[in-house]
């Protein structure tokens, strides 16, 4: 079974290997095979590494060494071979802490909690259960398998809590959406005097973004500089992303411009920030600057800049950028097709938008049809909208937003019976319009609003302010869509959510 030469740029030039006969097998050749396995795994040629191990296994029992077993485990993870992981676990002997941690991380990578627990027990039996490397691997395994309580227990009994240990448990909480618990662990770590690293700063900034806490993120920014990571590319990219999402584009740009080195993720974060806040022209200009400075755009870059063009209605720029993907050797994916459908759709060019679905070299996705459906709602194309909706339902996703778009199309067209049928379908499937939730920070205090709720202490003043703002908007020609006259079956709760959206309530509170 021949193997081709490994990439020269990695400095690895193993000779082609053929299956050895039993007569030719000797210690040097076994060692050579082990070395080949490790090199193949290092180059992420996992399938070939496992195939080569099959050859070695045919020659009888050989002690391949911990390094080779570790490489094989990595190969199993990379190729998602559950069977391979189990076999490695059954066959390894004389395991040290490094091999245990590798095996445990293999279980984590494949989300196999049962062998992970067995390895935990065996590690304790072998006397390495409290080893720092093994403990961190166990925390990672339990977290990825969804058992954060056991991860916390492992962390609690660690005799020495290192930076890696703290990172592991905090990432575990963050991974499952326990942002406040993750921050609580971060504060505990900070108070314990453990030295911070750039990875921790970038993760904490992301948590503050999730919790919409601008003031705390600024403090993390200051801490980043204070601890000597002010020029770190990972942490600063997280800051660019955070400030962009918060609409603090100038702050994001300031951080970006001060970065001595920028990678494609840094550029993508700022381009997306401009685009998400309606500054499409600046997003396009930044994209052009990125290319002129020699940074190769990737598929995420094109997604960000095409989304910016769509959001700002820059049809000509979007068309030109989409065509340039070929020049940059980036193959358009479904997400890029969706952007173009959205771009043409918002301009009312529904035939052109539909052509991207018909001409796609792959099966159109739900998001592609949903983009066309939304465009049909905006431009009241009942026939094409119904066709798009039927395609979506035929693909099986029970996504509330698609039903709502179709409901709006029928309502706007005065199709009372069809709209009522959509509502009945929603009720039959158990789908209900859940209230949206919006947070706003005012004077360092966070306020939370749900659509249509009246739980805030200043509810009366907020609703009065909202009515005042809506009256001013009506004078300018804006009237919200009201389905109640067409659809008497829409209950009062849902109607209130439509008229008193959480974002409207938050803005009214801020403006009062």
Task: Give a summary of the structure in a few sentences.
The chain has 512 residues and is an all-alpha fold. The chain has 27 helices and two strands.
Explain how this protein is built.
The protein is mainly alpha-helical and 512 residues long. The chain has a domain of 75 residues. The protein is built from 27 helices and 2 strands. A two-stranded antiparallel ribbon has the order 1-2. Helix 7 runs parallel beside helix 9, helix 16 runs antiparallel to helix 17 and helix 21 runs parallel beside helix 23. The protein is globular and about 75 Å long. The N terminus is likely disordered.
Shape estimate: globular
- Note the beta-strand portion: under 5%
N-to-C series of helices and strands: HHHHHHHHHHHHHHHHHHHHHHHHEEHHH
What is the topology, as strand order, of the major beta sheet?
A: 1-2
Please tally the β strands and state the result: 2
Q: How many separate helices?
A: 27
Helix content: 55-70%
Secondary structure category: mainly alpha
Mean pLDDT: 75
Distance between the termini: 76 Å
| Oligomeric grouping of the chains | single chain
Rg (CA only): 28 Å
Main beta sheet: 2 strands, antiparallel
Which residue ranges are poorly predicted, with pLDDT under 50 across at least 5 consecutive positions?
1-27, 60-66, 77-82, 483-491
């Amino acid at each position: 079974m021949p193997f081709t030469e490994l990439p020269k740029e990695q400095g690895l030039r193993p000779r082609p290997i053929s299956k050895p006969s039993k007569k030719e097998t000797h210690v040097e050749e076994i060692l050579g095979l082990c070395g080949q396995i490790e090199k193949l795994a290092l180059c992420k040629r996992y399938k070939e590494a496992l195939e080569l191990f099959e050859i070695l296994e045919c020659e009888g029992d050989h002690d391949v060494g911990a390094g080779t077993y570790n490489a094989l485990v990595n190969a199993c993870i990379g190729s998602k071979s559950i069977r391979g992981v189990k076999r490695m676990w059954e066959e390894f002997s004389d395991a040290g802490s490094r091999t245990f941690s590798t095996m445990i991380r293999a279980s984590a990578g494949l989300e196999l909690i049962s062998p992970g627990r067995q390895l935990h027990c065996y590690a304790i039996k072998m006397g390495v259960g409290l080893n720092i490397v093994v403990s961190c691997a166990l925390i990672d395994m339990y977290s990825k398998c969804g058992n954060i309580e056991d991860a916390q227990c492992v962390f609690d009994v660690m005799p020495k809590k290192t930076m890696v240990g703290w990172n592991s448990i905090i990432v575990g909480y963050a991974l499952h959406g326990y942002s406040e618990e993750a921050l609580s662990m971060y504060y505990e770590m900070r108070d314990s005097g453990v030295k911070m690293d750039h990875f921790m700063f970038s993760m904490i900034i992301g948590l503050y973004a999730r919790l919409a806490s601008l003031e705390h993120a600024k403090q993390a920014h200051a801490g980043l500089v204070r601890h000597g990571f002010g020029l770190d590319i990972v942490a600063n990219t997280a800051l660019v992303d955070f400030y962009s999402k918060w609409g603090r584009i100038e702050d994001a740009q300031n951080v970006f411009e001060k970065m001595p080195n920028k990678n494609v993720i840094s550029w993508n974060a700022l381009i997306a920030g401009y685009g998400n806040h309606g500054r499409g022209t600046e997003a396009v200009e930044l994209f052009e600057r990125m290319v002129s400075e020699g940074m190769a755009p990737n598929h995420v870059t094109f997604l960000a800049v095409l989304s910016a063009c769509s959001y700002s209605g820059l049809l000509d720029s979007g068309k030109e950028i989409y065509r340039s993907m070929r020049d940059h050797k980036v193959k358009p994916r479904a997400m890029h097709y969706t952007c173009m459908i959205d771009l043409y759709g918002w301009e009312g060019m529904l035939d052109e938008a539909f052509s991207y679905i018909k001409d796609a070299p792959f099966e159109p996705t739900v998001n592609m049809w949903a983009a066309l459906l939304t465009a049909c709602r905006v431009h009241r194309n009942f026939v094409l909208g119904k066709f798009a909706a039927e395609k979506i339902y035929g693909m099986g996703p029970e996504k509330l937003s698609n039903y709502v778009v179709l409901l709006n199309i029928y309502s706007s067209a005065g199709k009372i019976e069809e709209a009522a049928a959509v509502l009945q379908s929603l009720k039959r499937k158990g789908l209900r319009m859940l209230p949206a939730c919006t947070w706003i920070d005012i004077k360092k205090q966070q306020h939370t609003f749900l659509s249509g709720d009246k739980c805030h202490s200043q509810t009366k003043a907020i609703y009065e302010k909202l009515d005042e703002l809506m009256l001013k908007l009506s004078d300018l020609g804006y009237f919200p869509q009201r389905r109640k006259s067409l659809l008497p079956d829409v209950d009062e709760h849902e109607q209130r959510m439509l008229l008193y959206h959480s974002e409207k309530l938050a803005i009214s509170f801020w403006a009062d």
